[in-house]
Design a protein that fits this description.
This protein is of the alpha+beta class. The chain is 40% helix and 12% strand. The N and C termini lie far apart (43 Å). The C terminus is likely disordered.
Length: 268
């Protein structure tokens, strides 16, 4: 989608200018990647539809009034459009690999993993799962991948009947609970590069992460596995605020927070 600036308070990106589709096409050309099909769409067209429906979401939870819902639904709409493009050649496709364009990969893809996937399986990373599944990359056969690409269709049902719409938890519900698909864990690692050009603080530790040794601590705070000479990034503002809300609501206790941190920090 044609976006000239990014406003994502969740990740500290306020009014960051973007190069738009021309920049992305230029980067692909430099890598020698030629696109068979692509769509460039005026973002305001989709945003008008979103604004029309925002009040319905806000009636469920006032948090939907913020920019995070808009950015998530933009992402899901983009995935839906891309899915429509590859569906035109579905009979000639063995596997689909969805990748976010802001990822810097630390490992090579083991192509054998794709060939071993069954009809109801999908490949997903062990890191960045948070309360669900990593939504930055997924692979599967067309029958499975289409469920990932078209999950925008289920956002309203999930928000109004299941729980507050968070990307990772929503993805887990769609793939595992709703469609009864089976995840296959991969150790393929990739760091998110924010619109500011910096590595996302949560992803700095991935360079030093080992699978399966650190699988139990790869949620929102695995900073203690960083070598002594690597500066420890601050906890993201959203994580601090979320913990504060959970404490105030009684969802967790300070003793539970300390116990979780103790387990994380003492794990070798």
């Amino acid at each position: 989608m044609d976006i000239i600036a990014l406003n994502d308070t969740h990740n500290g990106e306020a009014g960051v200018p973007l190069g738009g589709p021309s920049e992305e096409l230029d980067l692909l050309n430099r890598l020698g990647i030629l696109l068979k099909r692509y769509i460039i769409e005026d973002q305001t067209i989709f945003d008008k539809t979103l604004e029309f429906n925002r009040s319905a979401y806000a009636a469920i939870d006032e948090r939907y009034n913020g920019p995070n819902l808009r950015n998530l639904l933009r992402q899901l709409e983009s995935l839906r459009r891309v899915t429509q493009l590859w569906e035109l050649d579905r009979k000639n496709i063995d596997f689909i690999l969805y990748l976010r364009p802001d990822l810097s990969f630390l490992d090579d893809l083991n192509i054998t993993t794709l060939f071993n996937l069954g009809a109801t399986q999908f490949m997903t990373p062990y890191w960045g799962q948070y309360t669900g599944l990593n939504d930055r990359l997924v692979a599967g056969r067309p029958r499975t991948a289409i469920r990932f690409g078209n999950r925008l269709d289920l956002t309203w049902y999930y928000a109004s009947n299941i729980q507050y719409l968070r990307s990772e938890a929503f993805l887990k519900w769609v793939m595992i609970n709703h469609h009864r698909l089976r995840p296959v864990i991969t150790n393929l690692r990739a760091q998110c590069i924010r619109a500011t050009g910096l590595i996302a603080p949560n992803d700095i530790c991935l360079r030093y992460c080992q699978y399966p040794k650190h699988i139990q601590i790869c949620r929102a705070d695995c900073r203690r596995i960083l070598p002594p000479d690597v500066p420890t990034p601050p906890r993201p503002a959203w994580a601090i605020e979320q913990q504060k809300r959970d404490l105030e609501s009684g969802k967790i206790t300070i003793e539970q927070v300390r116990e979780r941190e103790r387990r994380i920090y003492l794990l070798e």
